Amino acid sequence: MEEINDREQLNDFLKMHELEPIFNEELLPHLSLFNFEQGENICSQGDASQYMYILVKGKLKIYTNSVEGKTLILSFKTPLEVIGDIEYVQNIPIINTVEAVSSVTLIGIHHHWLKKYMSDYSPFLQFLLNIITQKFHLKSNSMSLSLMYPVEVRLASYLLSVSMDESDSQMNEQQGSVNLTDTANFIGTSYRHLNRVIQRFCSEGLIERNKGSIIVKDRKGLRKLAVQNIYE
Question: pTM, whole model, 2 decimals?
Fold first, then answer.
């Protein structure tokens, strides 16, 4: 993690995402800009929540760990997205782990300043309400779509989510090590069925499998198969 001490860049992101109206003048000096590299955790499940973050560039992966040590990916997020909003409102520890899929930039606000300046500021509270209700709406749609679409569509959408970020030209072409059990759990299928679909994708030239890694070879083909990205 690196804090970026560049107020001009921070102001550019505020304007780009039309965030200026939601903050009052007292809070603005306490906004910070952070950069996280690919693979870094923004926050970890169970840790104390101190910051609320607003994703303004890049892609994030949100996942949870069970008591047995199993990992389940929940979703992928691109701008504009808020991290730690529920934790701030409920005053609870971090619910899920959030990891940078690409290099990401976030605006961070410490809870101390939010409570001091934003607790009764209606534009900010309306912004939080819109963000949180939108999350529930998207989650409901995602669960429904995931059940309706065949495994081929779900896998194509998943691979597009984890292997590319059109807003970041530095994104690695290679997804890296793939845990097929976690992938199967995420898209709601069996390990065996998932393996068969991956083999078919390889034979069709959509992807290449090499020593536990998957390389997307035909993004256009995957996009056509996915129809729409059901995990973002």
Answer: 0.81
Q: Which helix (H) or strand (E) holds 142?
A: helix 122-148
137: confidence class by pLDDT, cuts 50, 70, 90: confident
CB burial of residue 21 (10 Å; 0-12, 13-18, 19+): exposed
Report the DSSP pairing between strands 97-100 and 41-43: antiparallel
Which helix (H) or strand (E) is 65 found in, with range?
strand 60-65
Beta carbons within 8 Å of 99's beta carbon, 6+ residues apart? 39, 40, 41, 42, 60, 61, 62, 63
**Rounded to whole angstroms, what are the CA distances from 54 to 13, 25, 63, 78, 156?**
10, 18, 18, 10, 28
